[in-house]
């Protein structure tokens, strides 16, 4: 009587893999979250306290390097760079939140609807039309759409946010559609249909929880893209307008002093990179968490 | 032990970063030309053992012990990739389980065979095309000449597996390893493949290490059997000894639960627990094995002529009490049109073509067919998940093909489904209590009562009520299938449709689930529709059977009749191809 | 194969038509009056009306759209209301400059990313593989204009190896052309190379897990050789998709690099037109860019069946 103890426990015993249900933290996720928290903290603190006022000029202290008074130095008007970085964090986050918000709220339902319609013979053409429209929208990269908006309306933070958000819609629609198709094709949805659950109930009970992970990952990546797009637009003078502090414009203004004060380019550049890195890492970490198969996939 | 072809000593494999080994101290040997079967269920470590011999273990596993092969100097476990590469295909080759993904999708078949000849350079360059043709002919590839220019996706699973065998034996290795080479194939194809492997291994005089979970398969191919369980070898012996006089409890349990012809004192299939009273595979009179023997034609032809042709009326044949059948299917067809944009238009695929049958209340009907036979489409139509292109389906007093959504709702209250894949049919993000109570929610039953009924149902399928708060991934395959059954029965339906409910389960778990199903069908007075590719399972469970092929009903009637006296050639070949323990033992000894 | 390509071509034409309607609607209908915009808010109604009549803006939008499309099809993008000059020569000249920049950048990115990504996948458990992964992750986070500024500080202002800005057509002097090309192309390529490296790495890792790689090793190929013979072509399919998307992104993304290095590319023309409130020119340039993006997508779609016989036979 060796080898098999009691049959029920050996062959058909509960396999306790409870640890899997816990939120698995990984290095990417932790580093990403820390970077994002840092930027959020900068933005929040700027509402209560900054070292100087954003428009406090000091002609005597122009283009300074780091010093106890100005840890990050000063710009051509003698304004404190740290103060500007803190204010700039606000714009960066606001653009990201609004743009990603637009894209999630429009793109995700579009994707789900397209997937649901594709199931029915009468809805297949509508689903195809939605996805074709999506493909055409993809032909307008975020930057191009934002430039068009700046040309048609006044250049500013508002049109920039909306343009970046619209350009991000196809990404969410695609993710939501393929995720929904996968869930709708699964046996557990067949079982739910055989159990008389209505289509909206299936969408809420089965589809949403199962695609939420993918949508969150996409949101993280889209946030990184919107940070880059806002910085780029402001760099071109088509995004956030003076005198509102923005990292992209700080970088652009630093260009004329590259040979005399390269630090002026360093700080905004560093913070843009940290913000993008933070959201990309968080996205990577979440992807591993939600879908181990997609481990270590890059993003653009 | 120098004369042994393969010698594995104290092989222990541990995943990187883990304490417990997944393979414990495995030792085995194989003489030149010997054919050894390595038997075990999922997780027994049989595939890891084979991969160690090939030097193909995944990098994240650490292996200790020695693996030596005649003609290879040193321990395979310690050898460098470059040395191992020279050995592979020259000394030892392998055929893998999954024919769909084992060949490079971007390369022509002929080039993939030519490659293995080129790598080892034993065939002169100019002779390679001729040799490729010879190899394809030797594995009985239909039209070997044009097969050279085909891509893998243009071939069937069986054909691809033939190509794999041609590649594996191209350089006449000393040892061929087959890792579940027929598990993904249909039964009739499996039979041909097994014969082919035996034939080719004999032709090149190689040794064979045949890995499988299926005892009946191993008996036909091998001389000796090694049984593995939970990472250890538990028993070794000749096929006859293992089959007739197993020494180890697990072997006996596996044997007993594999045998779908044998039942215990209560008429139940044997499980690991009840295996002690199992007497071994007995060729019962009138069972399917007779048909498999050579004189099948005389046996089956006689009654077939005598019987009146009663096609497609399995239900009526056995009702006899005159009441209307519970389910009535007449002239049902389903055509799929492939949808494409603008330019694409293909002829429709006939998934079902003029299907008619009926099922009486309380009847147990088996629907048997290989992949592509249309049995899943039929199920979808029956359960109102899909509509037929033409024909009528009546379940109870509901006309399914034209049912309103409210009629479909009441149909689904009476008809529930157990699905094939226990891992895909439960939503991974829901608790068991929510999964099982889902059909009750749709009925608008209050939470209190729902939970009470879920609890009752879980007990009925032998699960602890602690299971309610857990998630599906915390359960094994067999337990998940119990949850799936609980969900199907919680509304007390009249009809239970089971779609291959045990084909994804290990043999030892399979008999437990089948016994449970039998009990529940009795207790709840269910009408059962059981879809399967496995004749043995259907034979045990169902009173009547429908045999399907390419969207048609080939044959229908009472299970006993069909098995004893199949009228159609296809049914005969299906029965002959189904491996059974007794049949396998008879042919082996 | 032929039906597949024809299908894609039809989709391309349809997309182009829809996109042209969208662009026209955005630029010519939404903002109200292009003549007013061009002349500024304090222009007299008479001046506005005169300009409208001069450029046919008093016609209904459908006719104007039709005229615009017919003009473009015959290679005429119209006349700028602001400068009064023909737009076509401006677009043709600047598109060539941007094309050189972008194609050089994507080639450089592929040349860097494919070996690096493959190597990172093969050595994924070693420090080399981990380092490549980490560097590419950081590289993705650096916007190309920051890369440009850093490169200018190091190689132009400090080392003096390359000019910090300017452009020279190849016909004016090939050496001068090349030396001015280096920094802009490298700034564009580095970030894309970082992104592409990650995709190549993950595509190669996916492929290495495939059963046919195991088959190839069972045939007697080493792991590395199996990857080169059987894996890379399979890995190419997802990488082609990404490279296509990147090329499209670069086309518009180059606008910032053109600004920094004062290169007369199509992006610079676009920004100038926006600043001048020259909507007709903006409309023409946007349409050209959208056309190029769609062409790139079409080329990628046509590449699939060439690489993959399954797609070839599916149609």
What is the helix tally of chain B? 23
Radius of gyration based on Cα positions of chain B: 26 Å
Number of strands of chain B: 19
Report Rg of chain C. Answer: 24 Å
Structural class of chain C: mainly alpha
Explain the overall architecture.
The complex is a heterotrimer of chains A (300), B (589) and C (315). Chain A contains ten helices and no strands. Chain A has helices at 7-11, 27-48, 81-118, 124-138, 142-152, 157-184, 187-194, 199-236, 247-254, 263-290. Chain A is elongated, with a radius of gyration of 24 Å. The N and C termini of chain A lie far apart (59 Å). Chain B is globular and about 70 Å long. Chain B has 23 helices and 19 strands. The two termini of chain B are 28 Å apart. Mean pLDDT of chain B is 84; it is low at 284-320 and 339-345. Chain C contains 13 helices and no strands. Chain C has helices at residues 2-29, 34-39, 45-55, 61-73, 88-122, 127-141, 144-158, 174-208, 211-219, 223-260, 266-275, 279-307, 309-314. In chain C, α1 runs antiparallel to α12 (279-307), α7 (144-158) crosses α8 (174-208) and α10 runs antiparallel to α12 (279-307). Chain C is globular and about 85 Å long. The termini of chain C are close together. The mean pLDDT of chain C is 86. Chains A and C meet through α4, α5, α8 and α10 of A and α1, α6, α7, α8 and α10 of C.
What is the topological layout?
The complex is a heterotrimer of chains A (300), B (589) and C (315).
Chain A: H1 7-11, H2 27-48, H3 81-118, H4 124-138, H5 142-152, H6 157-184, H7 187-194, H8 199-236, H9 247-254, H10 263-290
Helix pairs in contact in A: 2-3, 2-10, 3-4, 3-6, 3-8, 4-6, 5-6, 5-8, 6-8, 8-9, 8-10, 9-10
Chain B: E1 6-15, E2 23-30, E3 35-39, H1 46-54, E4 61-69, H2 81-87, E5 92-95, H3 109-120, H4 128-138, H5 144-147, H6 157-169, E6 175-179, H7 187-204, E7 207-212, H8 215-221, E8 224-229, E9 232-238, H9 239-244, H10 249-258, H11 289-292, H12 296-306, H13 314-319, E10 327-336, E11 349-359, E12 364-369, H14 375-382, E13 390-395, E14 398-399, H15 405-414, E15 415-418, H16 432-442, H17 447-460, H18 477-489, E16 495-499, H19 507-523, E17 527-532, H20 535-541, E18 544-549, E19 552-558, H21 559-564, H22 569-577, H23 581-588
Parallel strand pairs in B: 3-7, 3-8, 5-6, 6-7, 12-17, 12-18, 15-16, 16-17
Antiparallel strand pairs in B: 1-2, 1-4, 8-9, 10-11, 10-13, 13-14, 18-19
Helix pairs in contact in B: 3-4, 6-7, 7-22, 8-23, 10-19, 16-17, 16-18, 17-18, 18-19
Chain C: H1 2-29, H2 34-39, H3 45-55, H4 61-73, H5 88-122, H6 127-141, H7 144-158, H8 174-208, H9 211-219, H10 223-260, H11 266-275, H12 279-307, H13 309-314
Helix pairs in contact in C: 1-12, 5-6, 5-8, 5-10, 5-11, 6-8, 7-8, 7-10, 8-10, 9-10, 10-11, 10-12, 11-12
